[in-house]
Amino acid sequence: MRSTTGWLAHGSTELRRTSIPRRDLRRDDLAVRVDHCGVCHTDLHALRSHHGDDPLVPGHEFTGVVTETGPDVTGFQVGDPVAVGNIVDSCGTCVACAAGQENFCREFPTLTYGGTDRHDGTPTLGAFSREYVVRDRFAYHLSEGLDPAAAAPLMCAGITVWEPLRALGVGPGSRVAVSGLGGLGHLAVKFAVALGAEVSVVSRSADRAADAARLGAHDLVDSTDPDAMAAARDRFDVLIDTIPVAHDVGPYLGLVAVDGTLSHLGYLGSMTVDAMDLLVGRKKLSSAGSGGRPATAAMLDFCAAHGVTADVEVLPSARVADALERLGRNDVRYRFVLDLSDLD
Predict the structure, then answer these.
(1) Average pLDDT score, the chain
(2) For residue 3, what is the DSSP state?
(3) Three-state SS string across 238-297, please?
(4) Given 63, 244, 245, 269, which is the most exposed site by the fewest CB atoms within 10 A?
(5) Do 304 and 254 reside in the same domain of the chain?
(6) Nearest Cα residue to 159 out of 305, 238, 285, 60
(7) Other CB atoms within 10 Å distance of the CB of residue 106
(8) Is the pLDDT of residue 309 over 70?
(9) How far apart are alpha carbons 310 and 320 in whole angstroms?
(10) Residue 114 belongs to domain with CATH number
(11) Which of 267, 287, 307 is the last residue of a domain?
């Protein structure tokens, strides 16, 4: 058993720098020096609900460099820059895995942290740490043209919005709205613009108009203005809903065109939908989570070709408590990324 240094949760209020275990490399493993790791709302939720029953090290969107490879690894070499997301294994044999949708694995995918290793049953510990050991199938080559700090959030926030945009056929001529301009939402805008769509932001904060325009959006629809919402009724082919709290999707379905789709990504709790909001206009309500291996690789290639990365604020990992506190207040434009080099 090897070890590294990372930030381990103690209860729901504190992360402490300490030694954490890493497995010895299996035949198809990579050891990755973690250089940058994004801070996701999922990390905040995991910490708030943690009571110490199992060890918790957050972090599931990261970039770094390969430092060692198992004997069966052929696709990576020591020194390769790589990116890893929130899925690090799956059964590999179910219908979903066979279709390249490991994110929908029938046995549930193994998560980067808070999961259970499929081989030895130990809890997975995340990338708020200086090293991560990962199966080679779930690591991805990172183009040297992408800034590794700004690329880290692509591996969770990015793929979460990329896969539904591609599944829904967004491209030139598509009219796309994005509700919620946060970590997911700002990347949804960037992707949809780069795909050639006409993009609008739907926000309760009208002062986000300038930022929406900077990201490439055509306009901003103020969701608190009844006249603006009425004027935008039935306007969009696709609406990507990234709002991270419970909310009524009815007004947003009203913005979706006939045969259009609202993809609900931001809030994962229970929700109620009035069937009439779907019936009038033959509208569709869908959802998605993370992405499979082919989609993740395609996203990174697209980002390298189009220069798409996240807007980030980079902090040394010693300031992880500041990042989490500010994230809880939504005081970030648009993703915190930890620099793990201070763990050396």
Answers:
(1) 96
(2) E
(3) EEEECCCCCCCCHHHHCCEEEEEEEEECCCCCCCCCCHHHHHCCCCEEEECCCCCHHHHH
(4) 269
(5) no
(6) 60
(7) 12
(8) yes
(9) 19
(10) 3.90.180.10
(11) 287
Note the pLDDT of residue 6: 98
User: What pLDDT is attached to residue 51?
Assistant: 80
pTM more than 0.90:
yes
In angstroms, the CA 224 to CA 214 distance is: 22
User: What residue type is 261 in one-letter code?
Assistant: T
pLDDT for 60 beyond 70: yes
Q: What b/e readout covers 296-315, taking b as 16+ CB neighbours within 10 angstroms?
A: bebbbebbbeeebbbbbeeb
**Residues 41, 100: one domain?**
yes
Helix (H) or strand (E) holding 161: helix 157-167
Whichever domain contains 269, its CATH number is 3.40.50.720
148 plus 170 within the same structural domain: no
How many domains does the structure of the chain reveal? Answer: 2
Q: Which two tokens stand for residue 55?
A: 């060890």
Tell me what the mean pLDDT of segment 226-236 comes to. 98
Residue 282 has pLDDT above 70, yes or no: yes
Query: 147: which DSSP letter?
Result: -
Do the beta carbons of residue 29 and residue 39 sit within 8 Å? Answer: no
Helix (H, G, I), strand (E, B) or coil at 135: strand
Continuous segment of H or E residues that includes residue 190: helix 183-194
What lies within 8 Å, CB to CB, of 311 at 6+ separation is 150, 186, 333, 334, 335
**Is residue 42 over pLDDT 70?**
yes
Q: What is the mean pLDDT of residues 286-299?
A: 97
**Do 13 and 143 share a domain, yes or no?**
yes
Whether residues 7 and 145 fall in one domain: yes
Task: Read off the pLDDT of residues 110-144 as tens digits, 9 standing for 90 and up.
Answer: 999 999 999 999 999 999 999 999 999 999 999 99
Shared domain check, 231 and 139: no
Average pLDDT over residues 143-161: 97
Largest CA distance in the chain: 63
175 DSSP β-pair partners: 198
| Domain final residue pick, 268, 287, 306 | 287
In this structure, the answer to whether residues 230 and 320 fall within a common structural domain is no
Q: What is the rounded CA–CA span in Å between residue 146 and residue 131?
A: 21
Structural domain of 74: 2-155+291-343
CA dist list (Å): 50 to 66, 101, 337, 343: 31, 29, 22, 23
